[in-house]
Design a protein that fits this description.
- The protein has two domains: about 80 residues, Winged helix-like DNA-binding domain superfamily/Winged helix DNA-binding domain (Arc Repressor Mutant, subunit A, Orthogonal Bundle), CATH 1.10.10; about 140 residues, Arc Repressor Mutant, subunit A (Orthogonal Bundle).
- Helices cover about 55% and strands about 15% of the residues.
- It contains eleven helices and seven strands.
- The strands form three sheets. It has a three-stranded antiparallel β-sheet with strand order 3-7-6. Strands 1-2 form a two-stranded antiparallel ribbon.
- The radius of gyration is 21 Å and the shape is elongated.
- The N and C termini lie far apart (about 45 Å).
- The model has no long low-confidence stretch (mean pLDDT about 85).
C-alpha cells in the first residue's frame, strides 16, 4: 500500500474507476506532469492494479484500465474518501489538516498546539474546536495530539521523530521533536477541507504562516504576551 503514498497514484486509480482512459486523457484528469503520470502508471501496472489494452474500435488507441484487483483498491479509496469528506467537517481533526495544508510542515507538538490555539483565538466561529488549559509552556490540549495520531492511523498525516542534542533543543518536547506533515493522500483531503472553508477563515490560517516559520521561542512569547492575562 505504500506506493499509494506516491504523488498521483491514488488519483490515477480514482480516475480509472470512472472509465478507461488514454494516457493523455489521464493526465488531463489528474493534472501533474506527463512524466510523473507515466511513472505512476508503470508502477501500478507492476502492482497488478492497472492494465493496458488496445481499443476494439477506431481510433484503436491503447488505453489504461483497472484490473479486478485495481478496481477493488480504487473502490476502497473512493469509499474511504467519501467517509472522510462526510466526517471531517463535523470533527476537530479538519483544523489540523487545514493548518498543514496552508502552512506546510509543522515542527514540533508544542508549535502545532500553539498555532491551533491562535487559530481558535483569532478565527471566528470555528466549530467544533479544541479546549485548552494553561501549563508550563502556555495553552495545551491533549485532544490535538490524540487527533493527530488518529489522522496518522488513517494515513493522512505523517509524524516523524527528530532527536536533538540537549544543547540544541528549542524548548521543544525535551530532546525529541515530533514533526507533522501531510501524506500525499492527506494532501488531497486537506485541500478539499481548506477550499470549503469561509474566505475569512482561510485568511486567518494563512496569517499564521509567519509564526510557523519563526523560532518556537518567538511564538511562545507572542502567545504569552497577548493571551496569558486573559487565561
Amino acid at each position: 500500500m505504500i506506493f499509494l503514498e506516491r504523488s498521483k497514484a491514488s488519483d490515477v486509480l480514482l480516475a480509472l474507476l470512472k472509465r478507461p482512459r488514454h494516457i493523455t486523457e489521464l493526465q488531463y484528469e489528474v493534472k501533474g506532469s506527463l512524466s510523473t503520470i507515466e511513472v505512476r502508471v508503470k508502477e501500478l501496472i507492476e502492482q497488478g492494479l492497472v492494465a493496458e489494452e488496445e481499443m476494439e474500435k477506431w481510433p484503436f488507441r491503447r488505453v489504461l484500465k483497472l484490473t479486478e484487483k485495481g478496481f477493488q483498491m480504487a473502490r476502497f479509496l473512493d469509499q474511504l474518501f467519501n467517509i472522510l469528506r462526510e466526517g471531517l467537517p463535523r470533527r476537530r481533526g479538519k483544523w489540523i489538516l487545514a493548518l498543514l495544508y496552508a502552512l506546510g510542515q509543522i515542527k514540533g507538538s508544542t508549535k502545532l498546539v500553539k498555532l491551533l490555539f491562535l487559530l481558535g483565538k483569532e478565527g471566528k466561529e470555528l466549530i467544533p474546536f479544541y479546549e485548552f488549559n494553561w501549563y508550563k509552556y502556555g495553552p495545551y490540549s491533549n485532544e490535538i495530539i490524540r487527533d493527530a495520531r488518529e489522522l496518522e492511523n488513517l494515513g493522512l498525516v505523517k509524524i516523524e521523530e527528530e532527536i536533538f542534542e540537549e544543547t540544541a533543543r528549542d524548548l521543544e518536547d525535551y530532546t525529541i521533536r515530533f514533526n507533522y506533515n501531510l501524506t500525499n493522500v492527506g494532501r488531497e483531503m486537506a485541500q478539499s477541507v481548506f477550499e470549503e472553508l469561509p474566505e475569512e477563515t482561510k485568511r486567518c490560517i494563512l496569517s499564521l504562516r509567519k509564526y510557523n516559520q519563526a523560532p518556537l521561542s518567538m511564538l511562545l512569547q507572542y502567545v504569552y504576551s497577548k493571551y496569558q492575562a486573559s487565561s
